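Worked Example 4.2. Consider the chain below.
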Amino acid sequence: MIRTMLRLRAHPGCEPAVGPAWEMIAGQLGALPGGLRHELLADALDPYGFVVVTEWVDDEALRAYRDGPVAARLADLLRPLTEPAGPSDYPPMREDGDGDGPVYVDVELTVPRDRLAEFHRGYPEVVRRMAAIPGYRREQLLRVPGSDTHHIFAEWDAAAPFLDWIADPAHASAQAGPIAPFLLDIRRRLFHVVPGGDDRRPHTTGREADVQRTTDVLVVGAGPTGLTAAVELARRGIDCRVIDKRATPAGQADKAIGVHCRTMEIWEEQGVVREAMDAGIWLTGNMVFVNGEQTHRMSWELPGLPYAHLGLPQYETERILTARLATLGVRPRLGAELVDFTQDADGVTATVRTADGATETVRATYLVGCDGAHSRVRDRLGLTFTGGLGRFPQLFMLVDVDVDWDMPDGHLLRFLHTTDGRMDGMLVCVPLRGAHRYRIATLAPPRFFARTGGQDAPPGFSEELGEPTLDDVQAALDRLAPPGTRATNLRWSSVFRISHGIVDRYRQGRVFVAGDAAHLHPPAGGQGMNTGIQDSWNLAWKLALAVRGQAAPGLLDSYEAERRPEGEEIVGRAVRMAGTEEVDRADLERQFLQEMSLLLSYAGSPLVGETVSDPAALGDAPRPGDRAPDVEGLRRRGVGHPLRLRDLTRGTRHTLLLYADATADAAELAGFADLCADARRQAGGELDAYLLLDPDVAEPRRAGPPVLRDGDRRFRAGYGLAGTGLYLIRPDGHVGFRGAPVDADALRKHLHLIFGGPR
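Applying the procedure from the previous section yields the following structure tokens:
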């Protein structure tokens, strides 16, 4: 008997059609002489992954199939739906073999649908533990579409280490323990490589193999921060590689859950905001209770917000961003861990250990460390936390449960208990998608701290301390929540330790840190993931210009100059919020807007500027460094509906907005064409320009920048301009420069800060 396995990857959006295409040919496959089995399996962890499995009585039957019309028809059906197939990921194999080469183990098991979440919580931990077993290489989790049947398909160096491991009675608890209840009734098959069949494999089998790869930017970490950096680089045509030491994607809501309004604007720009809204729920307000009494309640559904506050588990965020990145031709490489790196005047050389234990050398122009709280990049750079890494003395637990109570939907709830003015109990409940489902954070029971033996527990999640129980959750609710509150259906739980701090620098040479690699803070306000996304949003467009050789010498320095002060402010605010009822109850609305990053400004950056004759005349207009607010009601000839300012600024380039009303000088209007041409030339084409005219102004006859009408004068009102003026909007949506009236020479000097000398 010979088995073949062919991996396929569907194009995004085509994955629902792969199954029907397979069914069209499956009957013909079953009728072929010598066929024993044919099956399409789905990758249980990758919605785009599939594996075609066939089994044949001998080589002759397999060759007849491969050379015959049925295989050709199957290829024709799958070709438009899937990526071009390279060499098979698995060689031909047989059960009745032997030898010293690699072996494959197929474990068939049943995972009932009502226990699927339980299985997916435990499986990543099993994969992590197995990586330390001598002889183990990798595995893939597959499932039979539409059924409860799953397959764990694992590769080992040889049969001996696998048989030694399976013969050890301790292995069930030591490695397979988290999914042991599902392994009571299994079918196991052992396959050997067909002699001569291994040459079709695209990877080497030696652990010492050293493959050299090159790229423009190596991104370490495939969380939201790293994925955002990669999406923004790929959108600009920059070659990048993304690696992550995790063997499988996250599958549970164990991290960030709140998506800020500003992040939603970023996702609109990236083209994923609809997917996020479809997968999440709106967080509509919050309530705070102290010693059982409600102290305040606030609605978050404020007028004028571009988007509301979204609740979305981080694993969904990663899924959505990973799918978007795939449309740009980049896929994170999981199970690939950064070992070390060096840098020189021309680039960075990184050593990467792959999932099969081999090593690769990656040569990149730049490296971005988005590898989280325990960052290898931060460690290898020797970065330190300013003032030391602060740690809360308490241990906390995080759980995912259903809660039965009479509380308003969509509200984040904080229950605090104080004694003599000192907080000694807290319970934070964030709604998740699903009836009565909440993420709850509260103090861990004392027994967990006792398990540390009096030693300092490490930051982050502590797997060695065990998992809190439903009784632990209920005890916290009994103490702090309204009487009669009941918790049920515990899906996931963990103990964690809160750390806080910010590194002394965000850049060293050609290497940068972002997200939790650069700053750690309490979860109060949900700042962590959103701040990391903002880091990458700020850095990526600058890196892209640098890779192309279009950046002024100091452009990359502005990343630290702009993001580190913001990081310091956020860390300090989150620490204060974590231990108090509220930071500023005098102005809750402003505090909310600040938490949502809508008030974020780089006003102190050396990369922003202005020439304004009368600043007072601009009123509350956005200043240099501020987020550029959207405006509606713009009119463009040939377009039958009003436009938004965001329709003009959307994209990967700078946007120059010139404005003129009826008092503008005609000669100055005529000169705008030359000004725009000069600006585009200085920016090397990385700039779009538009002329926004008051309704009473005649359009200039000379060809120049595209013209739009400020139909309802909303742009004039929002940006405070009269006569003539200009705003330069950066690719990250912040005001880089403003002038009133227009000063071409000042604009030219500002562009020099970004793009360098004349082109």
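The chain has four domains: 2-200, 210-284+303-389+501-595, 393-497, 609-755. The longest helix spans residues 527-548. Compare this with Example 4.1 before moving on.
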